[in-house]
Amino acid sequence: MTETKTYKGLDLLEKIFEFTAMTPDANQWNVSSLKSNPPRQIRLRQIQSLINAFFRQETKASLIDKTIALFQ
Known about the structure:
The chain is mostly helical. The chain is built from 3 helices and no strands. Helix 1 (9-22) packs antiparallel against helix 2. The longest helix is centred in the middle third of the chain and has 18 residues, at 38-55.
């Protein structure tokens, strides 16, 4: 039987804090810049997936813009 994980806003925040600590340069906060670093790229993709799941909006905003919107 497959176990289902329920994600909360705190899970998203934890992933964002972890990722930004690992990648402090905001210019690298995109999938193509992280091509040579799969662990960071996976974390970024997880963040993007959670943002899409929570907000159900497709936007062209960057990670930093989405994070700011999350806090507002």
